[in-house]
Amino acid sequence: MNANIDLTGAPLPPEDSNTASITGATTQKPTTALLPNGSRRERPGALALTVGFGLVAVCLIGLFTSPSAAIGGAWCIGMMLVLLFLSVPVAIALSVPSIIGVYAVSGIPATMNILSTAPFSAVSDWSMSVLPMFIFMGMLLTQSGLSGKVYRVADHWFSWLPGGIGIGTTFAGAGLSAVTGSTIGMTYALGRAGIPEMLKAGYDRRMAVGTIMVSGMTGNLIPPSILMVVYAGIASVPVGPALMAGAVPGILLAVCFAAFIFAIGVIAPKLVGRGHNAQSTTGTADTPSFTRTTTTWRDRFTSLTGIWGFAVILVVLFGGMFSGIFTPTEAGAAAALCSLLLCLWEKRGEQPWRKVADSAMDTVAATSAIFFIMIGATMLTSLLAITGLAPILTGLITDLGLSRIGFLLVLIVLYIVMGMFFDTLSMMLLTIPILLPTLETMGVSPLWFGVFVVLLGEFAMVTPPVGIIPYIVHSIAKNPEVNLGATVTLRDIFTSLLWFLPVAVVFLILMITVPGMTEWLPDLISRTSGGMSG
Question: Average pLDDT of the chain?
């Protein structure tokens, strides 16, 4: 996939884009980036294509001359990796080698069977209908302008604390990435708004960019989480519990980042604009200061009126599931309906039905892309079963003698390396079918593992020097309208992550040692509502 195209087909802002600020006036139509595109690489050049297709040819020869089905399956896995490195769309990279592998191992009847059954079985489950509902909801909320209002509310309510603007940015980022389903899309929007606001308040440039980079890490855990729905489909776990399992860890991680920023504000106040006159128009060459308007309590309460619709949607979504009135699927549909009414109300007089139509078209495109990828993942699962590669891989992992904690630590390293090439969704779809048979052997709950994998994928996307998010924020920070004259180097970006990422590492360790945090809320809802599988 192209570095500036997401799964919806909508272009992401280029480095020198003058796209709309999340808090200010618009100069261009904001993009509706829904899912991470996952690659900062340009399309491969002629040399890379030549080498890549040469490797594909080698894999094909190895497949059709393999002495056993398992070795043939291994050649297919190698072919998938080569295609992914060549920026071939994920759905094609997963499905084509799987189909060829099934044909090579079992012949035409098995191939026709997988072609006829996989597309239907991958996406026909009723619980998967919540996916387009959540996507449609996110599109509508973006079109309604709610994203800017959420940021302003967070800014108003936390700006009085030490590091308050950073704390507000952290919570706003968690909320926005949860609603839109896109860490990258949220990073673009929040980076253009949050970095200049923090610089105006006297924040050190490294604190400003670091806050932006970690703000979206929690969003794909907090419901409505598209990635958790996709995981539920791949792992065959109930959608409702999968959605709720990520809520507590997602909120706790956001609180941990906020607490870290608050601690920095107390221990080193100059880093967050305290301890010197942040309201003056003076400053250093690297970090100039600008006037920032003081927020009153009246401003804080007035700002809440702008997000009343968001509060209603949360009540419908969570209240419906807690009370047992709605299943998760029905709650998603009800929340999408509320978002539709909210968009029509907020954009009345501004061709609201056109915005609804645009949201619907983007939803169809995004849902189709995800479903095609899930079909590819189902074909990969079939290949692993037919070739017998799945039990062999499970046996190899078991024979290593790793404990549960050792197994998960190896996964952390694996995902960090994979984050150099793939987005969270691609990493999940490539690894989950291979790892699922091992979970029971290692004593790992599939529900907990879904939360762990999603968080690990987000962690990999910000880990230097391989993650994509640091390079996105660096490109945003080179815009003079964003950096306000301050020089933000790539070294500053990486230094800021050295401050923030230990918080995420500690939280990952906490998740491993206290796995019950993922199951508490699903169990609570199950007891209060009598179940929530659909």
Answer: 78
Q: How far apart are CA 510 and CA 55, in angstroms?
A: 41
Quickly count: other Cβ atoms within 10 Å of residue 447's Cβ: 23
Residue 247 Rama label (left phi>0; alpha psi -120 to 50; beta): alpha
**Residue 518 CB coordination number (10 Å):** 25
Q: Which two tokens stand for residue 148?
A: 């800017």
End-to-end CA distance of the chain: 33
> How many residues can be counted in the chain?
534
For 107-124, how does the pLDDT look when each residue is reduced to its tens digit (9 = 90+)?
A: 899 899 888 888 888 777
Q: What does 462-525 look like in DSSP terms, one character per residue?
A: HSTTT-SHHHHHHHHHTSHHHHTT----HHHHHHHHHHHHHHHHHHHHHHHH-GGGGTHHHHHH
**Cβ count within 10 A of residue 467:** 21
Question: Are the C-beta atoms of residues 393 and 434 closer than 8 Å to each other?
Answer: yes
pLDDT category at 13 given cuts 50, 70, 90 is very low
CA-nearest of 153, 159, 175, 177 to 307 is 153
Task: Name the amino acid, one letter, at 387.
Answer: T
Q: How far apart are CA 232 and CA 374, in angstroms?
A: 11
Complete DSSP assignment for 294-313? PPPHHHHHHHHGGGHHHHHH
